[in-house]
Amino acid sequence: MAEPELNVDSLIQRLLEGYKTITELKENPDVKKKSTFKTIFVSSELRGCRPGKSVHMTEAEVRGLCLKSREIFLQQPILLELEAPLKICGDIHGQYTDLLRLFEYGGFPPEANYLFLGDYVDRDCFNCLPIAAIIDEKIFCCHGGLSPDLQGMEQIRRIMRPTDVPDTGLLCDLLWSDPDKDVQGWGENDRGVSFTFGADIVSKFLNRHDLDLICRAHQVVEDGYEFFAKRQLVTLFSAPNYCGEFDNAGGMMSVDETLMCSFQILKPSEKKAKYQYQGVNSGRPSTPQRNPTAKKK
Fold first, then answer.
1. 113 Cβ contact partners less than 8 Å away, ≥ 6 residues apart
2. 3-class DSSP assignment, residue 75
3. Fold of 77-266
4. Which one of 75, 139, 155, 274 is most buried, by most CB atoms within 10 A?
5. Region (Disordered): which ranges (predicted)?
6. What digits encode the pLDDT tens for the residues 180-203?
7. What are the structural domain ranges in the chain?
8. pTM for this one?
């Protein structure tokens, strides 16, 4: 018998509001016999949830959501062209309760539109996702940074998906390169992959493409956001207390209709469980500190 079609909207609503609880399973033992559950713990301070409240998804729902997401991603252009207003978030790294905190600040979908810059659940499942975005023809957004191979936006549009991330070249650089205040032009990257680039590269890129700002993620910054190249580039990192090891804040950038940018900050909590998800790409370089003064616990 074919599985019923997945109701994505209903599933998203459950994830955002903690619709089902452990109590329901206890009251209905037959549910346990029919399906395998995965548990996602929801922040106790959000949406009226009590401590320990959880969201339950069947294995079929998880699989169906992944397949539906893949279908949606492949229908979208690889270079998104978006309009303000919207919120931009950096790395999440699977910190689900902090994602809900961001929604609490910025408005739960569909009340507000969001652009996430990658590293949602560490480093898996990239091969169908869009690679970059341009907001109102003025703000260029990507996960990592610029590439010496990038001469025009049409090069990004020609990348075919699904695709694995290569070790060199345009796609690799858009996901892995980093700005460096001590570099002019292009430099070696301590990650062992891609390049670093200086403020001069940022200015040339913006002038060539008539852009105002580069918005990227990919590095831990102490205050959740950090400017570079005289505010021509901003790094966002949206996972506070990253991996339970850092005292960094999480940042989110709001872009209004006039392209005025403002920042919302998630302060690091006093206590955070230490964890680190190790995905199939765990051998790739980890997300480094951008600000060397960021405190490690």
1. 82, 85, 86, 87
2. helix
3. Purple Acid Phosphatase; chain A, domain 2 (3.60.21)
4. 139
5. 276-297
6. 999 999 999 999 999 999 999 999
7. 8-65, 77-266
8. 0.80
